[in-house]
Amino acid sequence: MPPAASAPRLDRLRHWFAARHGLALEACDPTLAAGDASFRRYYRAGLPGGETRILMDAPPAQEDSRPFVAIAEAWEAAGLPVPHLYGADLEAGFLELQDLGDTPLSACFDDEASALAWHKRAIALLHRLQAAAPTEGLPAYDAALLGRELDLFPDWCLSWLGLPTPPSWPALRQALIDAALAQPRVAVHRDFDAMNLMVQGETLTLIDFQDAVAGPPSYDLISLLRGRYRRFDAATFSALVDDFRERAQAEGRLPADLEAATWRHQVDAMAAQRALKVLGIFCRLTHRDHKAGYLARLPHFLDHLRDSLAGLPAHGDFRAWLEGDFAPSLTAALAREGVA
């Protein structure tokens, strides 16, 4: 469980919620429900009738909650499952949201069969998102943003390992950007992860969508399929990727003449981009933000990167460097850090 907010902010949050509902202050005692990799904290607070709400504390100096509010309202208006926003004080950084419970999708993977079934439900929701969510007002997932994300890998991961950027990096970097920009534009959640899909019965609800952009349809798909919780075998991954393409083509969100091989290349390139970004972000979260637990996830995303690069044969030099230099350096660094 993450640390709670500072006492003064928590006290302000209590006063704000109590005033909104005409509660006596002593009857308002929010309890910490969750935190994330940012400065946001989430609390659960009760109302007299037994209903509960989630209070988001997002300090304005570190977090801008305006995108979250705008997207929550737009996506709810589009009929998408998002938590209802009951009220907000953007100057204070306080939001009151629908309580969706404590069960993220990641808690529902009891075995391989259930994991696959739930991933298919999540992909069905992704189709709804891409079909219904407006792209107007969303930042573009453009070359500059894609490049900044990729640069997290040398800036944070390679610098920690003491490795120079390999000569093969510029060509790979540009190829991954080009592959993303070649795709159509849809609303991209940008962290369509099993921890950000809440389960109520068999219903999935989207959370943590404040970083949404207008970008490639492959991004959220690989966020889910090559995310933190599963590494699908090649046959299962290919089947899910092909099924997504066929439905998206039938519904007009991918070009009807898009060949399966071209789509798979775009998916693998997008997955490589995200894996490289995540390797950098997790190192930054560890060494700049002093957050625990992220280094242990690096080998998992290295495996995702290997899987992705296997579909990009033009970048064999980078793959050779990855195995000959990067992987051994990462293993040694994790051992020094005491990470199993």
From TrEMBL:
InterPro entries: Aminoglycoside_PTrfase, Kinase-like_dom_sf
Pfam families assigned: APH
The protein's name in its UniProt record: Phosphotransferase
Domain Aminoglycoside phosphotransferase as annotated: residue spans: 33-245
